[in-house]
Protein 1
Amino acid sequence: MGAPAGGFASPRGTAFDLGVQVWREQSPRANVTLEVSARITVREDGARTGNAAGARHGDLAVAVAVDLDADRDAAAREALAETLGALPPGCAYALIGADGRTVYPFDGGWATASAASLRDAGFTTGTRQVYVDRKAWGPGTGGAGVAGLLAAARAQFDRGGDRVPPVRHLLLVTDGSGGLGHGPVPGPAGGAGGAGRGGQGAGLAAVDAELDRCAGRFTCDVLALDGPWEPAALLAVAERLHGRATPVADRFAAAAEEAVAARHGSAPELPLEIVLRHGVRLVGLEETSPGSHPLPAREVQGRPGVLRTQALPWRPGTSTYRLKLGLDATGDPLATDLQLAALSVGDSHAPVVVRWETRPRPRPTPPRARPHGGPGAREPEAASATPAEGGLAYGAEENTVVVAGAVELMRKELKRGKIALHDRRHEEAERRLGAAAQLAHQLGVEWALEEVGRVAEVVDARLGVVRVHEAVDREELKRSILHREGGTSAAPEAMAVEPTAFITFDCHRCGRTAGATAQYCIVCGTALTGARR
């Protein structure tokens, strides 16, 4: 199959390292589902430094959207002016006020960053029209909210068409004063002010719907100042639009400058391309780090079997993805390396190769959370920490496939448990935090147990039994939800345990789970050692 044809060249000064891992030996069944882990590292190769980096500022368009209370401390307004003043020279920029209207430049278009224009924009931040001004709009009203500002940014980036630079980024600065927003963005001056308000569920639905429209069109970083913002909404914005949501103080200019600097050092957006062998289909694709969300991929017109994601922003660092491939393998040759797919980003390509065997090595079963802490909860079946002599030795690639899913599930349960606790859904919080604690215990991940312990008493980590604290600092809880705990890597090297300490197997005849050192299946008696090499 080779490298995908018609791919996209890596931008000058940017290098991509793409690697895939898959459990190589598989049984040739009629309905096989393969799980593939892809790891992409982006690095600057030294060709873009100093003045060369400055030459790229013209590729950047930044929209700064403001959702702050007009009566907030003056430090926030000063920080907003400093943020605009620190924009890289030559980039295109616009300032969007809390009501969804572009307040600078005054014609509603785009300005080019220069000393004079940035000074004028800085003066604009001192006017109340930029902020959520309830005194002017009346009691019970507010700004466009998160959904309205996303819609306003989308319209702003569309304004100018192809003349808007290719690297498009939204910096959303919020204290939650405008709410989530689920009404119309205000019209021209003199029209109705503010978006409609209502229940949180409707607001979250409006944010989700607007994110569907914005995905792939621009990226977004969120700076969250102390206030009544909803952590689930800000987290969704950052993950879906490939950015970060960061809790900040009123003097946030340094954090804003860092976020913009990361973007103007980014490569222009490129898609992830997948080429499938005839008969192979893509069952699912999701980003697992640094975000965690499904990633749609569509077939390229006129090229059967070639799929592309939306254009993704690539900046220095590592991202991981999980693919599921489905196929009928009954007609394939045995004991032969077969390439089922190939992945490509920029100039980097990687094949997905498997080998069909009638008696493949038993597949490891990753740690899994048992029923959470209620009556009948039982301890997971233990696996020996050290394989018996002559037992199975595993390669790093195979361990990565086994472990990465469990680590990511642990992160998701921890995050969802905190969100449930913030929303006062205590039963769900205990269930999810208990699952995170149980997985952390099996994986040997101490930081995750410590995170659970900040908001709940860990009664029994082995059984996943926790009890949330009666009193929780809700502001600190909100801030912790926005953080990605334990760093950005979901790879097993970040864990303090050898992978063989928790690997188990499913018997290839009856499906019964067995420990890593088991010689025979305790249900059907099938020898488990013969297939181990």
Note: The chain has a mean pLDDT of 78.
Protein 2
Amino acid sequence: MDKEKDGATGTNNDSNEEIDVYSSGGDVNNKDISKDRDEEVQAKECNDTSDASDDKSVDESILGDISSSQCNKKIVDDNKSKNANEEQIAQIDVDKETIEMNNIKENEPLDEQQHTELEDDTVHLVDYNVEDNNKIKSTKNIKKIALIIGGMLAIFVLVVAVTTSAYKNKVYPGASLCGVDLSKMDKEELNKEIKSISSKIEKNTMYIKASSKKYDIKISDLVEDYNINGLEQKIMNYGKEKNIFEKFMIILNSNEVKYGFDISVDKEKINKLMDDISKETNKLHENPKVIINGDDIKLEVGKDGKKLNENDLIKKIKGFTNKVETLDDNVSIAAVYEDDKPTMNINDLKSVDTKMSTYSTTYGSGGGRGSNVENAAKKLDDMILMPGEEFSYEKSVGPVELNNGYTYAPVIVNGELQNGVGGGVCQVSSTLYNTTLIAGILPTERRNHSKAVSYVPRGLDATLASGLIDYKFKNTYDYPLVLNTNTSGGKLTIEIWSNKDAKKGISYEAKGYASGNSANTYLYGYDKDGKKVFEKHIDTSVYR
């Protein structure tokens, strides 16, 4: 038995010598193989020791069994304690050992390819497990990061929700009106503040600089409504229609938002103010003129003018609160003037060379009526009417008021003579009516007097009632028309001048045929041979 044991040991030693030789060649697993061989020898020795103690006492036998059992148990426990990776590596080592033992028995060493394959399998398995462990660690780190980010996001959303909720019924930061901060105000506070601001503004004065004049206007005299409710709603609703994160950014940034009143001005007061400023400061253009003296014609060049830009001034007045930095400030506004160019070119007037028609009436010179006739006639003198342009007698001589050169004189009202401003102006319109008919021009608007007059035949008069009745006609010729008036010694004469070819050789005659309290008016046209080539019933006039 000792001999067999020695032989076994010798064989083991021979094997160890062969393994050492391969270890020197770089086999990384040979030491583990040697270790496994030692464990097998140790197991055999435990068994041999147990066999050698058969002739001893029962106690020693039991102890030998226990010792052998403990040895076997230790080996089993060691093997079980290895993890799955070590078992796989051990299996590879066993396979390698088997190959090597077979080679040793046959005295054939492992070739290089076998070494390489075994080494690659081992390295790949080790790399796989390292990679697997790294993946597990990476997954755990990602989960930790996700939890941190999720927590931070939850906190952020909570902050956003709380912040925006606090401004649900309040004005966002940065809002101001006339320099007053409105931030964080609720609806009631905002309404009270806006009313307070408007009442303070009303006490201020507006200074308007227009040309060389200055106008001091009380703001309370022009403002009709501050539209407080609309402004309040606009301020309260700002940004509230946005999503929760956009609202949060508005609150966080607190950008300044300046508001102003949407003022409604009193139209009558503002229009009167514009008229007053325009009349006092405008320097209107002068159109080229045709100066007629007897039969002589002279052209006069027009001049540029300046006129108030009323729309711009009204806009500035309405937006005056945008200029108020503090509530104690008064407002200064500069009126803007624009060029007022002539509406016609002097070259267009060079075609005027002939008197087309003339008509005269008589009036009592002196007194109020004579003064009114002369004033109205003067306003018509040198007036030019371009082709297609319509003439309005009321616009040309009006307004018939005391401040426009007129005075009191008898006027016809509902068939009765009464004293009124402008008595006599209808004689000028009636004289002009006859002049236009002789020029072959028909009226576009005309009314007879309620009572027949003495200065023209019935059916050939044209009355004026400011705002109600007007006398109008249109230039239907291809050339300009020029009015030339003259008053002298109680005689009123009105002429119409144009181009010699305007009437195309036709002479016109107007006639009123009276019958009872009515009269029918006709216009006739004759060629150069006296042949009637035109006839037109104009209208029927009815008198009281």
Note: The two ends are 172 Å apart (CA to CA).
Protein 3
Amino acid sequence: MVILCVTMLPFSISAAQADGVTPDGIKWPKNQALPTFNQPKHLDVVNVSNAPGDVKLLMTTLQGIVNRERPRIYLIQNKVDPWYNEMTIPYKLHDNSMDVFDLYKNEVKGIIIYDPKTPDSINVATTLAGLKNAVVVSPELAGKLTAAPYKLKVIEDFRGKFKNKIDAYTWQYEHLWNQTTHRMLIGLSPDTSISLPPGLPESFMTIAEEKRQIRDASNRGTYEYDLSSYLGNEAIYVRFDDSFTQDGWGPAVHAITVKADGKVIAQFDAGTPEEELYLYDRQNSKYLPGADHRFADNGSYFMYEFKPSAGTKLLTISVEMWNQYKVSVGNIRPLSSEQKEPYGYLRDYAVANKAMVFWLSTDVPDQRALLEKILSDLEPGTPYLGWFSNDFEGEAASVDLLSRHSVFVLAADWFHNMTVFSGTKVEAAPKIKPNPLKLENKIYVTFTFGEGDNLQYDLNHMREILWEDPARGKVPINWTSSPLLYDAAPMVLNYYRKTATENDLLIAGPSGAGYFNPHPWPEETLPDFLRDNYRYLKQTGMTIPMVINRDITKDIPISSSEAAAYEHNYKVPGILLVGDQFGIEIMNGTLPVSMMPGIGTAQDGINILAEAKKGWDGNSPLFLSVGVNAWGMRPHDIQAIAESLGDQYKIVNADQYFTLIREAYGLSKKE
């Protein structure tokens, strides 16, 4: 079945420019952070959200080749895609991905076969695909595509070529790096976990759950449970989840002992080789170097597998753990997130732009050394799109390293169809200017949802979960977003600007036009980088930045020179600086910096504001900026906090907040 539709999508109709226009038609002037694609006139659309990973890989690499000249393929990759539902240009909706492949097979020069035994060969193959106008395929798909009716040429077969990860990326650096663009880098995991059903697996029952929001390990103890009722199958599975998924203080497990009829059959501490024998699914749990426990926060979990001998009558488990745990047990083998498959998403953008794709860790010496080689070849202000291995700890170390090389980050590894969104046009934003406020002796509070530097957050979670909350617009809220949506996805930027209420203010996510740390960024390149990208803040209206300034993982104050760089080159009225306590500092006598501690629940917000009020004498205004956990909280949580406050409090947006601060401290007005 083919569905024909005709509607309207905002298009980019910029004139061809002599500077920065590739032979394929992509426009990328020197002063532009990201490229602009040609306007889409017609799209072939297919839903691949439930397709096998190798099909997603095939189709996104095809999409990159085809959309380089003009966006013509749109792939539905998420279960929910509100952007597709609103797309109103001529398109055909196809039932089968191979129908779309058939339409464009003549634009494909051949195939590149990845090695399933070396997953990182997927990334090397993606890089080569961009250079050779080829698609990346599994060995199984290779058999189909080299036979009739396709008879595609094998350009490269990576099976058996690389010994390991570093061998693959070293070969790529030595043979492909000089052919790829040096104006962007792409960091993607070569594979991802297979899709798992939501909730607990079949046969699992929760046997213990901490009902209190404990964050200080005050409930640390050894807990014993009888698992005998789950005997009868080959194995028993014990899973640990976060009982309060919104605040990030999930289960911490130090040691486990399992006994069958009184005999120890498993005994280990977290993070040891002995634990690995029983760790069936680590999912997104963490064991940090130097720690004594494994933990899983928010929606993460971890699961162990134990196999008592047949005929066991009594099975018990002893667990030393603390914080917000939920323990569940089952006896039917569940799917595991450790089963991996390739995935698509940002690969279309990498292929179209002929960018190099890799997944190197700052924690592994030979990988870090190779990454530093790559970074040393770049001009200051180069974007790194994608993400990092090891999640949070990888994030902190990697952002620090990239910042030291004057490279900024755009989290985008789960951003889909960027080759299509980059061809849309920025539309004029409605002008919303709240009435000016009279300065009073009140407690002024401004709330800021973080994560907006994350392009895929802007595309997905912010739109689907937060923006759709009925409480949005009831209370002033600052929404961090990325000023670089101006290049990457004008249609997304348009949506937020058109649907914002007078209580919604878009501000720049950390730490401006891109995610970076000012502290490690070289002092000699920071002013020029900010000056070059100021236009993105001005053109998007995101003139106030939320800033993360870290020494690796430790939040630190902003320096005088860093503050001056922001004030003179970004022309900011003030800075919201992530920290662990409230406070206003006037940097260099002219720039207000508001320290912004974070909250994970509405009760956290109520508590932190009540505590701040205790030190207020009521004789002058008090200014408090609060960071909001965007993954666990919603606008209705901010509304609940607001409704709990007395008349002494006034909630304002960041524009109003810094206008009032500047008046209170006798600083000049900023337009």
Note: The first strand starts at residue 2 and ends at 5.
